[in-house]
Amino acid sequence: MLAKIQKWGNSQVLRITKALLADAQINIGDDVNVAVKEVI
Description:
Oligomer: single chain
Number of domains: 1
Helix content: 10-25%
Mean pLDDT: 90
Largest sheet: 2 strands, antiparallel
């Protein structure tokens, strides 16, 4: 899935589709761990 960083007020956000939230079993308000991974 390709996603785009967007501006929301003074912040930048990564919008996630409902389908991806459901597949990942993530709900609104959940904490998530975000990490940078080297892509080869």
